[in-house]
Specification:
Elements (H helix, E strand, L loop, with lengths): L12 E4 L2 E4 L10 H5 L2 E3 L2 E4 L2 E2 L2 H14 L8 H14 L5 E9 L13 E8 L7 H6 L1 E5 L21 H12 L4 E5 L5 E4 L3 E6 L2 E5 L8 H12 L3 E5 L11 E6 L3 E8 L2 E2 L4 H14 L8
Helix pairs in contact: 2-3
Length: about 300
Amino acid sequence: MADLMSYDDRDGFIWFNGELIAWRDAKLHMLSHGLHYASAVFEGERAYGGEVFELTKHTERLVDGAQTLDFEIPYSVAEIDEACRQTVKANNLSDCYVRPIAWRGSEMMGVSAQATKINLSIAAWDWGSYFPMEERLKGIKLAWATYRRPDPATAPARTKAAGLYMICTIEKHRAEKAGYAEALMLDWRGHVAECTSGNIFFTKGTELHSPTPDCFLDGITRQTVMELARKRGYTCIDRTIMPEELKDFDECFMVGTAAEVTPIKSVGDIEFQPGVVCETLLNDYMATVQPGKAAAE
């Protein structure tokens, strides 16, 4: 997990609207539209050996997400990619987490904000495994979430937009207070959807079953893991998965930039045994993003 050092009081540099500035000077006004109305999009990225994995895919998703929220980021994909690289380098980081975020500023206050300035900042910091490695390799415990992923007719559900994560924070807190590491969310129809911070897979033999991402993010890590699975000869199946089906699967794991590949040992009272498929894909993923290092190091 992240350390307890305050994120507003650190040494280092943050890329802010076109220049690298001192970390502690990267501030926004309390009346920024993005703070009040969640008019912000962001990305979560990891650098391994100083190189951000799938950087351009993340940047393209950031730009597309801003357009979905009806604003244009005033930098090209290539410029944002380079800014991410500069931020990692300026902070003397090698393996780290990278967080670009774009938001509407404080020029207008109210639901309408068409004349606001669009801001972009990028931070990078040392952030190890989202789950402690010992816990991760044994498998984590998931609670069932109460809130559900929304109908795409009610929100831009497949965009990495700030407002969509409010219920994720609530459910993550609820799960942790009950002794779980994560929570599994259903969608508005009652179908299995995703965890609060990553996509989920279930296995049956050499088949990988995953909920169809029609109302939540089709994660870049998810796509990478499916490519690795196919190379192993596994069959990948996107489909509707109902909660009552979980007892019929062999293994279960979640994936995401922060979580990487994390085996799951239980969802509620349904237990799984992390096995060869989880271990294989965890090792394959770590070998892909960080060649030469084993997943268990």
